[in-house]
Design brief:
75% helix; globular
Amino acid sequence: MEITRKKKNRFQGNDITQGSNFILNTAFFLYSFLCLAPIVLVIAVSFTDEKSLATNGFSFIPKMLSLGAYEFLVADWRSLARSYGITVYATIVGTFLAVMITSMFAYVISRKDFKYRNHLAFFMFFTMLFNGGLVPWYMMYTQILHLKDNLLVFIVPTLFSAYNMLIVRTYFKNNVADSLIESAKIDGAGEFTIFFKIVVPISKPVFATISLFVGLYIWNDWYISLLYINNPEMINLQYLMYKTMVNIQSLQSHITDIPNAAEMIAKMPNQSLRMAMAVVGIGPIVLAYPFLQKYFIKGLTIGAVKG
């Protein structure tokens, strides 16, 4: 009798567990669909004819397929390829240098035996509360550093971030044991050896986290080109697309007096071009994220919450 009751309770427990798993899986599936739906809609609209968009509106299934937006983008493929190359270069080099500088500075101020770590930490946190403003920032980059029309202007502003420094420092404090460093010193290892051969290998999660932060910032930035780049052959991808959209809108507003202007405006890509630019601009970052995801969550939670 007792055995039968235990089996019955166990079966009931299994049924409850399976039911809970089904509900959770269904909820996550719906949530994932809601997250992916806007991306699917953007891709669908980018392949939709402009006149069809004006008539029928946005749809997940294009009423009339068209490559007009992409043909417009690749009409000047040399400029697109050059801007793409500049953005890729700035993202890779800027992310690598930012991670190196951030990690080395954070490692120094995370060491309890470093005498001036509190002073350096104060200067770091001070920049989170106050900044000089746009005019001093512009004067420093143009008159002191002479980075006007220089590709380094895409990289230098991202080299130091107090927020990223805080994440990395907290990660080091919670995951790099003092005994590990002391044992390495006893074995004769120097500071650079300790950092690159011991600290760096066990800090991949936090490096992946700040790499994603910095990489996204550089890839999506267009403001730097607006301020510091006058040479049209040195603008990055996002600013090229911004200029393209502004030129389209300006052209549409100045051809109203031309015969058949309404028909010309209807054929000219506008909404579909916006979506095509979003698809072109988002590609590499979307492809890179899955490779960093397994490190991203761990690095962010341990570096920012624990301790």
